[in-house]
UniProtKB/TrEMBL annotation:
Protein name in the entry: Glutamate--cysteine ligase
Keyword Disulfide bond on entry: yes
Reaction catalysed by this enzyme: L-cysteine + L-glutamate + ATP = gamma-L-glutamyl-L-cysteine + ADP + phosphate + H(+)
The protein's enzyme class: ligase
Assembly and interaction partners: Homodimer or monomer when oxidized or reduced, respectively.
Native species: Mesorhizobium cantuariense
Superkingdom of source: Bacteria
Family: Belongs to the glutamate--cysteine ligase type 2 family. EgtA subfamily.
PANTHER family for the chain: GLUTAMATE--CYSTEINE LIGASE, CHLOROPLASTIC
Primary role: Catalyzes the synthesis of gamma-glutamylcysteine (gamma-GC).
Pathway assigned in UniProt: Sulfur metabolism; glutathione biosynthesis; glutathione from L-cysteine and L-glutamate: step 1/2
Signal peptide: none
SUPFAM superfamilies: Glutamine synthetase/guanido kinase
């Protein structure tokens, strides 16, 4: 999230919080695709991490991008920490360890999404390469220890850094040493949101498996295919993971609100300053718990929007749904992730088929699958088969959905070609992580340094 929200309307009651989510309902012709992707900057000389400051640091890249694009700077305590397109059509932001993120514009087709990603990577390379900086497309930082990883000067991250060790063992790794690709998708009604939430929660472990791309930590194999997926198993289980209540046949906006109300807050912003609120839940905040702690200590709709952005379930509900299961990866994966989910969720026949495929899957079965995937990838067991076999069926459904959409580029090709990189994973029976591990043990000669050449943008 590039910029935290300021909306000073006071909250009168819980119904307003439910309505805030319901305002995301959109007719089908207004549905859009918003893709986010993160990557690790590194110095080509020595494959070292890039700090915020200095003539050839993250700040300099942001300033160069600002000059090139004409986007508005996002300032935190006098320091540039991101950029936003003036009409809200996209943003560039920093993750805690310097991971460089594009939050893409809401677009109509995967063709547009792919062009957007390609243009962004070309632009950032133009600025960064003269500084000796390139970007790595992986799900986890393969070389640098937590102590070696830079820290970005962003106020909300200072609060999170203090809080994470109190609620899990891997939160700091999540913040500083992982990258993801996400896609944000719309719904037309509460019932439509429910269907999409339930299908995508059940299939999120499959997404993690197909995109598994983080097998190295501190220059050695870590025994996992998705280190990032494993990290999320013990980051902060009050606000992340697989939400069992979402599996209910009556799940709706109000249920998500009730859950969110009882999750501890991170912060509120008053007069441009971030105030640590990790000691209370949003429900306690609404009851007046911060009345004497911070200026204007009663909750606003901006506080609620910011709180929703600090919840990290496998599928996050705001005024749209965020698919959060995939590791970061190379350029083709940036296009494949939105194609995979758009194919499943934006065509009625495909959504019907995905729902039928997963309708009998229980919370416990899905959780077991989620727990197995970080180590086993698409070989993880499910019932009497494996995720690889499940993937064959799901890819057929996604491809059908994209074909039914019929969104063609200028050369007459539809969006199905963007699934090819995932088809390769299923056909091979090995993930990107397994391919990297094979290279490490053979042609890379037991070194992870070649990853900085082969997986760089």
């Amino acid at each position: 999230m590039a910029r935290d929200t300021t909306d000073f309307r006071p909250i009168e009651g819980v119904d307003e919080l439910v309505e805030h989510l319901a305002e995301g309902n959109k007719p089908r012709d207004k549905w859009r695709i918003g893709t986010e992707h993160e990557k690790f900057p590194f110095y080509v000389d020595g494959n070292a991490p890039v700090p915020y400051g200095g003539e050839h640091g993250i700040r300099a890249i942001l300033e160069g991008m600002q000059s090139k694009l004409g986007w508005d700077p996002i300032i935190d305590d006098g320091r540039i920490i991101g950029l936003v397109e003036p009409t809200g059509q996209g943003a560039i932001s920093l993750e805690p360890g310097g991971q460089f993120e594009l939050s893409g514009a809401p677009l109509e087709t995967i063709h547009q999404t792919c062009r957007e990603g390609n243009a962004h990577l070309a632009q950032v390379r133009e600025i960064a390469e003269p500084m000796g900086i390139r970007f790595l497309g992986l799900g986890g930082s393969p070389k640098w220890s937590l102590a070696e990883t830079p820290k970005m000067p962003k106020s909300r991250y200072e609060i999170m850094t203090r809080y994470m060790p109190k609620v899990g063992t891997k939160g700091l790794d999540m913040m500083y040493r992982t990258c993801t690709i996400q896609v944000n998708l719309d719904f037309e009604s509460e019932a439509d949101m429910r269907r999409k939430m339930q299908v995508s929660l059940k299939l999120q472990p499959l997404s993690t498996a197909l995109f598994a791309n983080s097998p190295f930590t501190e220059s050695h194999p870590n025994g996992l295919q998705s280190w990032r997926g494993d990290i999320w198993r013990d980051t902060d289980n009050q606000r992340s993971g697989l939400l069992e209540f979402c599996f209910s046949p009556d799940f709706g906006f109000a249920d998500y609100v009730e859950w969110a109300l009882d999750v501890p807050m991170y912060f509120v912003i008053r007069d441009g300053r971030y105030h640590d609120m990790t000691h209370i839940t949003f429900r306690q905040f609404m009851a007046g718990a911060a009345r004497n702690e911070v200026p204007d200590g009663l909750p606003t709709m901006g506080d609620w929007a910011n709180h929703l952005s600090t919840l990290f379930p496998d599928v996050r509900l705001k005024r749209f749904l965020e698919m959060r299961g995939a590791d970061g990866g190379p350029w083709r994966r940036i296009c494949a992730l939105p194609a995979f989910w758009v194919g499943l969720l934006y065509d009625e026949a495909a959504l019907d088929a995905a729902e039928a495929l997963t309708s009998s899957w229980t919370y416990d079965e899905t959780l077991a699958m989620r727990n197995a995937v970080p180590e086993q990838g698409i070989s993880a067991p499910f019932r009497n088969t494996t995720l690889r076999e499940i993937a064959r069926d799901v890819m057929v459904i996604s491809r059908m959905g994209l074909k039914n959409r019929g969104r063609k580029n200028r050369d007459g090709y539809d969006e199905t070609s963007f699934l090819n990189t995932l088809d390769e994973v299923v056909a091979r029976g090995t993930t990107s992580a397994e391919e990297m591990l094979s290279a490490y043990h053979t042609r890379w000669g037991g070194s992870i340094e070649p990853v900085f050449m082969e997986y760089a943008y």
